Amino acid sequence: MTFASDSMKLVATSGDGTLSVCNLRTSKVQSQSEFSEDELLSVVIMKNGRKVICGTQNGTLLLYSWGFFKDCSDRFVDLAPNSVDTLLKLDEDRLITGCDNGILSLVGILPNRIIQPIGAHDYPIEDLALSHDNKFLGSTAHDSMLKLWNLEEILEGSNGNSGNASGAAGDSDSDKDGMDLDNDSHKSSKGSKRKTKSKPNTLNSTNNFFADL
């Protein structure tokens, strides 16, 4: 689940493949998507509230336009077939994914692309969190281990390599969609498939973790 504080709405994904928007003022489900082909496991709100991004069990990221929740407006498949178990918003254009193959990736949204791998666990990722200043990323996995990553150092090292990002699914879906009633549907587009692997880049270039949590 994630909370849209400006509109007092709770956005939730479900194992039945639906995305629901609950109005907390009226305590009612305001909108619900059509059934997806796969389970929706994670969700974040991006693009200043105009886009809702969902991670699925088959590794596809589904992009919904706010106010048009019946069907996704775009799909990003480069993380497939690895289940996207958790998503963490870094800013309005980038998010961090945690997949069941243990890989953490920095992903750009509109244009959709894998910017770079961040690190890895030996087991599926369970949760992600940022420090108060966004300089450090914490990740936990099924190995009961917390790893800390120096995001500032990792992102600085990638500034000169932005042209090497994986093929984008395209800018076919504008991030300027209106925030009207749920009365529109969009056609989906698919990108190319690619797997990425990386070695952990943790604080001071060493493995820093807390075991046996």
TrEMBL record:
Alphabetical list of InterPro entries matching this protein: WD40/YVTN_repeat-like_dom_sf (IPR015943), WD40_repeat_CS (IPR019775), WD40_repeat_dom_sf (IPR036322), WD40_rpt (IPR001680), WDR55/POC1 (IPR050505)
Segments annotated as WD repeats: 118-152
Family statement drawn from the similarity comment of this UniProt entry: Belongs to the WD repeat WDR55 family.
Lineage: superkingdom: Eukaryota
Protein name from the UniProt record: Predicted protein
Coiled-coil zones: none
Pfam families the record matches: WD40 (PF00400)
Database matches in SUPFAM superfamilies: WD40 repeat-like
PROSITE patterns named among the record's database cross-references: WD_REPEATS_1, WD_REPEATS_2, WD_REPEATS_REGION
Bias-annotated ranges (Basic and acidic residues): 173-187
Record-linked Gene3D superfamilies: YVTN repeat-like/Quinoprotein amine dehydrogenase
Keywords, in A-Z order: Repeat, WD repeat
Biased composition (Polar residues): 200-213
Species assigned in the record: Arabidopsis lyrata subsp. lyrata
